[in-house]
Amino acid sequence: MKKFGFVTVVTLLLASCGQGQQAIENAAEQERDSLQRIINEKDIELNDIMSTFDEVQEGIRRINEAEGRVTVADASPESASNKEVIRENMQFIKNAMQQNREMIAQLKEKLRKSSFNAENLKKTVENLQAQIDSQSTRIQELEASLAEKDAQLVAQSEQINTLTESVTSLTEENKQKAATVASQEKQLNAAWFVFGTKNELKEEKILQNGDVLRDDSFNKDYFTQIDIRYDKIIKFYSKTATILTNHPSGSYQMVKDSKGLYELHIVDPVKFWSTGRYLVVQVK
Predict the structure, then answer these.
(1) Is residue 76 domain-shared with residue 119, that is, in the same domain?
(2) I need a surface site. Which of 7, 53, 62, 201 has the fewest CB within 10 A?
(3) CATH number for the domain harbouring residue 84
(4) 10: in domain
(5) H/E segment holding residue 137
(6) Beta strands across the sheet bearing 241-243
(7) pLDDT tens digits along 173-210
(8) pTM of the complete model
């Protein structure tokens, strides 16, 4: 019986020790789980912050690229395609900078609420903020430069329009003057001739009682107008032709063509027409 009692006590002691060990192990596991949760939460928090960092840096890079495209296109802004490039990229830059400002504000708020020491991260945020501020200054200067060039282009366009209008006005004025001069020259160099039978000339009162062009009652519409500078040969389509008006000898020749029909060759127009600008020829 003594031996049985001893065995029972030993068994109870062993059981008690086993339960204590299990409790220790359970407590340690709970502590590990708690630490792991804390680590996981910090990893998630840090990953979130770093992801935002990356987005801001990518935004800065893309803004720099867009700024470069604007600068290249601005080298020749007159092109319609270049103007479109400038417009699209400037709009992109404005949107991207606004997004970056918002993400920087989010980073600052996340770091403020962060549960771990983030001095290095805060310095990185300050550096990003400085880059964005520098970009903002450059973009403002670029916008001012573009606005100034646009104003210059508008002024140049207005000047060109004014000059174009002036040139058009002068061109029209010169055309009118040239037309007036041409008309005056044509009048100054105008002469009239007529040929017909004796009866035809009498009917038109060109020949009256043996006198040629005695007064202004003759039919002026019966005459043909010519330019004495160019019209130097006049055909009469007749085998007989007599000049009734007075013209200096030596200033013309009466010549027959291959068919024996008369034509007048004026060899000295100035001299020929010096006595009058009307030529009357009687034919049969």
Answers:
(1) yes
(2) 7
(3) 1.20.58
(4) no
(5) helix 119-188
(6) 224-227, 190-196, 278-283, 241-243
(7) 889 998 888 889 999 999 999 999 999 999 999 999 98
(8) 0.46
